[in-house]
Amino acid sequence: MTNGVTFDFVHRFEPGTDGSAPPLLLLHGTGGDETDLLPLGRTLSPGSALLSPRGPVLENGMPRFFRRLAEGVFDEADVRRRAGDLAAFVAQARAAYGLTAPVAVGFSNGANIAAATLLLHPEVLAGAVLLRAMVPLAESPPADLAGRPVLLLSGALDPIVPADNAERLASSLRLAGASVTHTVNPAGHGLSQADLAASGAWLAKNFGG
Predict the structure, then answer these.
(1) What CATH number matches the domain at 11-207, 3.40.50.1820, 3.30.420.40, 3.30.930.10, 3.30.70.1350?
(2) Cβ of 169: how many Cβ atoms within 10 Å?
């Protein structure tokens, strides 16, 4: 099925069972791997094809999608490089597995690389669910996300993502033309049932998943 393709990312792929459901690109948080978000993907959109890569950067042995200099301080040159690598992987996977443009579902570090990919390579993703995302780049690049649906779910008690940072991310995506729904749930950095319910409903409404 992969036609001998050598992929740039270690990943898991699960074919979809409903052709009308969008493929999901599952992007884990720090210390996760390619299996972490598969149960979440099945819960949010049971019929979707699931594409789940492992972050290629190690921080104290924990996989991530890009380097950081400190908590909340990103190596922006690496963010840009890794977003390009992820975009190339998505193109590889679409060709190998016969997928349409996926909807990213990212948590924490995975949400941050999804946001960066949206802004740097807007053609790659059909939309995104950003769970506990931060601004990935200090200067938002010009991007055309006209009408692209994005759900940003923040935690009111999140000790890692400041409220104003999440608001700035929502604003930058809106300025690029994305149709952004930003909800702040009474939760910390971890996911709550409210996050799962909101994500599933949003996917069904916007993509029929």
Answers:
(1) 3.40.50.1820
(2) 27
